[in-house]
Write a structure and sequence with these properties.
Length: 83
Amino acid sequence: MSIKRSCFHLTTIEFCAGNLRENMVVWRELEKIPNTNLVDYGCLGYCGNCYSEAFAIVAGVLIHADSAEALIDKIIGYLNEQC
């Protein structure tokens, strides 16, 4: 999925460091998107999600998927919807 983002507001995307280790491809892809602020924390308190799937918090909304690639698509889709 491609980004159609022409928004001028900054969107924060938060990651749990433990989950991010398994899904660095997500970070690398999302850092290419303009107007995004990527932040990783030691723990976001979503331990069940962290253990079982790829996830991120996008502008305060939990987005999760079965794989890193699917998470990228879901996040890009969400960002496109917000513009």
